[in-house]
Amino acid sequence: MEKYYFVASKGLLAVCTNDRRFKWSYGTDMPYATQKEYKDCIIRIQLDIVDNISPSIDGETKWSDLSEKYHYFSGITGKDILRYRRDFLFGSELQIEIKGLLTDEPHLIVNRHYYKYITHKFMNLHSIGYILEDIAGLIMLRKGFAPVYCSSFKYGSDAVVIFAAPNTGKTLSTLVCCMEHNARFIAEDLALTDGKMIYSVPWTNSFRYYSKVGQSQLSKIFNYVSRIFPSLDLIFFRKKRNINNKLFSKINFIESTRVTHIEILEKCNGGLFRSNIKEASHKVMNFQKYRFNCQSSPLIIAYNYFNPDLTIDNIYENEKNIICQLIKNAQDHFIVKENNAASYSNLILKSLKKEKI
Questions:
Q1: Does 49 share its domain with 165?
Q2: pLDDT per residue over 320-351, tens digit each?
Q3: What is the pLDDT of residue 357?
Q4: pLDDT at residue number 5
Q5: CA dist., res. 264 & res. 333, Å (int)
Q6: Could you tell me which of 178, 149, 292 has the C-alpha nearest to residue 300?
Q7: Can you list the positions of beta strands (E) in 100-239?
């Protein structure tokens, strides 16, 4: 079985799989990595897609003779392994096996029917992308890292992390600062943190377009942005239609940096206001709850039933402590209030000048 390696965040998170076109939320279009780059990461996840998962454990012992049911999951008390089986169309089955969840290199095996047809999250069925996200989040939080729902850039010596509810303007604000003000790109939707540093997960939704596509495709992206933000009308982008693939090259891209500024976007009239640590922590944790929920993952909950050592009760507290530490370590905190999403970037840059607010 040929293996392909993908690194979502250098030195931190990687995936090894037999799917050469593998994509997920931590890397919508990641380039191939080497086995060494994979091994150099703190958290490594193995994913194998197979026709069918063996009904036995060791080639002889039947899984059904030893396992206990937990809804559609089956497990063995004290064994670091869990299976999922469910009847599907025309006599086929949906099958998953996960083992090693108590280690830093879990192994997820899924049959092709599940991988192909379960592409979203509905009822108690979660796509493999969602399952991998939950697994990665669980292990990261256990290792002292947290996924962060944010965008981020570095402007001079200032490293800015932008938090907001979905579809408020995080990505737009970061891209405008990078395209119009020579800021250096860190993240546009997702990053990782240990409470001091912000680590880039660059291969998410927008970064790949600006680093790979040609001018005609880029125009389509701009048109898409303008449909989301009609008032924008591309006023920031019209002069940049001839942007080339060097925009987000290594020169303009940072893998990690210490955070100096926290900016929270709110869609309402107002302007720029300083925030205190308590207010910023409350709002950021609210955004985190909206995006990440590994402690409520059906697979992880079922795994915990058979393996009490997989402690998930303190996962939220771990996340809260890491995020709150990130906010405390920042030099300044701001609430940016605007109805026009195109105006956020100017207010953010104003806050970096350290003028009296």
A1: no
A2: 999 999 999 999 999 999 999 999 999 999 99
A3: 56
A4: 98
A5: 8
A6: 292
A7: 107-111, 146-149, 151-155, 158-163, 184-187, 190-193, 197-200
Enter the tokens of residue 344: 């956020």
Q: Domain check: are 238 and 207 in the same one?
A: yes
Question: Which three-class secondary structure state does DSSP give residue 27?
Answer: strand
Q: 0.70 exceeded by the pTM?
A: yes
| DSSP 8-state secondary structure symbol assigned to residue 43 | E
Residue type, 2: E
Amino acid at 218: L
Residue 310 lies in a domain: no
Contact between 160 and 352 under an 8 Å Cβ cutoff? The reply is yes
- Neighbour order of strands in the sheet with 146-149: 146-149, 190-193, 197-200, 256-258
- Domain ends where: 118, 145, 172? 145
Which among 123, 145, 167 is the end of a domain? Answer: 145
- Tell me the angle at which helices 128-142 and 315-329 cross, rounded to the nearest 10 degrees: 70
Q: Are 341 and 225 in contact (CB under 8 A)?
A: no
What are the angstrom distances between the C-alpha of 144 and each of 25, 192, 301?
21, 10, 21
Reported as type and span, the H/E element at residue 138 is: helix 128-142
Q: Examine the domain organization and report whether 125 and 152 are in the same domain.
A: no
Q: Which two tokens stand for residue 326?
A: 């990130």
* 141-157 pLDDT per residue, tens: 999 999 999 999 999 99
- Averaged pLDDT, 5-19: 96
Pairwise pLDDT comparison (115 vs 245), residue with the higher score: 115
The answer to whether 177 touches 153, Cβ cutoff 8 Å, is yes
Query: What's the domain range around 69?
Result: 4-145
Q: Is residue 307 part of a domain?
A: no
